[in-house]
Amino acid sequence: MLRRFRERALRQVTELAGFWDFAFLGDVDLDSVEVAAIRFDDRMAVPGCFDATPRYAGRRGLVAYRTRAGVSDATPHRLVLDGVHHWCRIFVDGKPVCDHAGGFTRFSADFTPRSAGEIVIVVLVDNRFDSQRSPLHLEYYDWYHFGGIARGAELHRLGDLWIDALRVVTVDLASRRVKLSLDYSGLERRGPTELLIRCNGQPVLKETLALGQTSGTIERTLELKGAALWSPSEPNLHRLSVRLGDDDQCERIGLRQVALDGRRILVNGEPVRLLGFCRHEAHPQFGHTQPEQLLVSDVQQLLDLGCNFVRGSHYPQDLRFLDLCDEAGLCVWSESSGWGNTRQQLQDPHFVQAELTTIDEMVAAAFNRPSVILWGAINEAETNDKRSRPAFEAFLGRLRQLDPSRPVTYACNHPFDDVCLDLVDVVSINCYPGWYHGEIDEIAAHLDSIAAHLEAVGLGDRPLIISEIGAGAIPGCRDWNEQRWTEQYQAKLLDVVIRSLFIERDRACGLSIWQFCDLRTSEMVQRVLGRPRGFNNKGIVDEYRRPKLAYEIVKRHYHALRGKLA
Ligand code: ADA
After folding, report:
1. If you ran DSSP here, which 8-state letter would residue 563 be given?
2. Strands (E), 339-449
3. Which residue ranges have their beta carbon within 6 Å of ligand 1?
4. Hey, whose CA ends up nearest to atom 4 of ligand 1?
5. Rounded mean pLDDT of 48-55?
6. Ligand 1 centroid – CA 390 distance (Å)
7. Beta-carbon neighbour count of residue 132 at 10 Å?
8. What is the pLDDT of residues 370-421, one digit of tens each?
9. Using CA atoms, how far apart are residues 369 and 465, in angstroms rounded to an integer?
10. What pLDDT band is residue 213 in, cutting at 50, 70 and 90?
11. At residue 323, what are phi and psi to the nearest 5 degrees?
12. Ligand 1 centre from 436 Cα, in Å?
């Protein structure tokens, strides 16, 4: 996958994007499929979602993708896939090497080819709903679950010693000190091995190590003297490259610290008011795949709107989107996959494990992105039932364990009876006054009652983000009555929301309006009947990113509010 920086200079990496052979197998039993007998009678783009193409639109079933790649020797290799929906099984030269569930995270499959030459990679991909096999893709969720190899694919030659992960955390701003952790693996214990670290091309550390184990973690503290800090207004980035033996990895880091001070979120000690949108990764023509031009265009529009914040709803966003946010100074809430999960699901060890795995993958992939300032667990779960609490303890605990440097949250839609909110660092509330209940003139009172309740339950001193609020507007629907579903109603509602939250009050430190763009909803009849066009129409731009009336109103407010924080 082409990132905004070169991830490796030494490791042999083959980009697998392009046109793969394709076969739609349909509603067949996965285990009965004989891979060698598949007749590949079509072709498909990778990355891409097959069911966003006209021939397979709306179809669910098992499909097969096939490509070939060259390998130069019989040392360990790794296939790196950035997102396959919803479930897949990977075969290399006919042998199964990995199963994976969950479409929005990077994972990898290791194998050792028999010899130098050509290998054949087949990926069986399943976009059918199956709560056992893909517990994180459930039909009732309020978005259309597209299928396919939706994000990038690469083949890496690992050789005999390789870097598995690189994590960099800012430990002291004044001295520009960062802590670097490097996970490595190898085939055998090695003699002296060189470790070389450079920042922006300049050597900052050179050592010869005796690696006593075949795998382990190397930790070093580095002082990056004179390195400019990253902040939303000055998003300075630095290239940190590590070479271990013959392998290497480069990260583009930002020096910054996120902290909390009562009701405020601080970046480098400065309070930030988060002004933004919830963003889905969906497009009628590309499904969950995000072509570069779409990513650039979304970031341009978010900046044009005056945003400094994006909530990646309701799953980890494309890594290239995070790269662009790093450059633009857009702060990101990175959220694990989930939507409205019930207490039964949250008590099911299989579901909990799937969620924990996705959390691990999300954090591993986005750890070094300075734009990510907040980790979020599942959206709108049944957190008003105490039986859901152990699952949330596990999710938030895992996030903290993997990364103590960022605060954690989840989007709660039970502001008055949630029983897990004390577990978070930042309280985040989804609410729809003026849309699902009450009228526009009741919005301010509703926000006050949420604040009063938080105070009453001892959460009055924690930062508060209104993580969803909004109104549906069918694109082009304007009417003298300005009733619900018109663009005027949405514009009026969002005007009142922003005034109430930030001009007339200052309890909240953030807002992510629901939502940035319209998107297709689930095919379930109950869902479609409540969603004109079969779309969630609460976008401020439609699915082709054409602005609605509310765009200019939000833009005016957000630009005026930026920089006006005491
Ligand atoms: C919820 C949910 C969103 C969306 C929204 C709506 O708050 O988190 O994904 O479904 O409701 O539009 O009703």
Report:
1. T
2. 372-377, 408-412, 427-430
3. 142, 314, 379-380, 413, 430, 468, 514, 536, 538
4. 142
5. 98
6. 24
7. 9
8. 999 999 999 999 999 999 999 999 999 999 999 999 999 999 999 999 999 9
9. 21
10. confident
11. -55, -45
12. 11
